[in-house]
Amino acid sequence: MGLSPGEVVVLCGGTGGAKLARGFAGTLGAQQLTAVVNTGDDIEIYGTYVSPDPDLVSFWLADLIDDRGWGLRGDTFAVMDALRELGADVWFNLGDRDLAWCARRSSLMHEGSSPTRALSLLNEKVGVRSAVLPVSDDPVRTWVKTPSGGWRAFQQFMIQDRAEGPVEALEFRGADAAAPSPLVLDALARAEAIVIGPSNPLASIAPILAVPGIREAMRDAPAPVVAVSPIVAGEVLKGPTAAFMAYAGHPPTAAGVAAFYRDLLDGIVADEEVQGLPALQTDTRMDDDAARERLADRTLEFARGLGSR
């Protein structure tokens, strides 16, 4: 089976994966990129369906992301302020335009669109030409257990509990009964390279891998599978990655990331030396578009050098 030159699939969840997806869209061309995105963070709140990671990737690709790292640039929060004035417990902030985005998705889904189709229609309106695919149209929800808080939905753990660990247990509820999106399976089968983005391996990528058929599709794909480490200069740049890695029994290092994905990987990209599998050691910071595109270029060149399976 031949590969389709230039087509890249990036597994995404959170800022690191979204930034790398933006880099690939810039260097390859948007239509050569498919982002397969975590839905474990999804939540129904304020009468709308919110899908934080697919939306984050979409906003990055549309050049609409706010400087704070989430939501839409320049958004206002009048609705949240009004809800507070009316006595609502507003613990999950959505900007006014972000809320409109989610309300429109909810309407489309109520009219019969799948989450994948609804997001595609929204992305058409903001000029996103890459495919941004929720891993499944079935509900998959991440739950986190800590000694102090017990079982908490992911957004409650992250926002209300301030991601205070240690992480005692992790579940991806609904994953066993979920089916992967056919578009996701098709993209994996056609890709020239499959890249696991530099997102939290446990909280952002593991929910994708928990959907039956995804691991098998990645193993069966002719494309090489390469991970980009989220550990930069020995540190986690964003989020509670260290706490989740500790729960999984791996150190928060590139070697630990490689060990977590070991059965899937043909290679890893990191800014530190990694033993035991093909590795590209390079600068993995993505502070601007040039850096994002440079990392995407080097990652693809490295994957191409590994050849097809």
Question: What can be said about this structure in brief?
Answer:
The chain has 309 residues and is of the alpha/beta class. Helices cover 40% and strands 17% of the residues.
Provide the spatial order of strands within the biggest beta sheet: 5-2-1-9-10-13-14
The CATH superfamily appears as CofD-like domains
Q: Which regions contain 5 or more consecutive residues with pLDDT less than 50?
A: 1-5
Order of helices and strands: EHEEEHHHHEEEHEHEHHEEEHHEEH
Number of strands: 14
How many helical elements? 12
Shape-level CATH architecture: 3-Layer(aba) Sandwich
At the first level of CATH, the class is: Alpha Beta
Global Rg: 18 Å
Q: Compute the separation of the termini in Å.
A: 10 Å
What are the salient characteristics of this protein?
disordered N terminus, 14 strands, 309 residues, alpha/beta, Rossmann fold
Structure description:
Strands 5-2-1-9-10-13-14 form a seven-stranded parallel beta sheet, with helices on both faces. The chain has a three-stranded antiparallel beta sheet with strand order 7-6-8. Helix 1 (15-28) crosses helix 12. The protein has a single domain (8-68, 129-306), classed as Rossmann fold. With 309 residues, the protein is α/β, with parallel strands linked by helices. 40% of the residues lie in helices and 17% in strands. The protein is built from twelve helices and 14 strands.
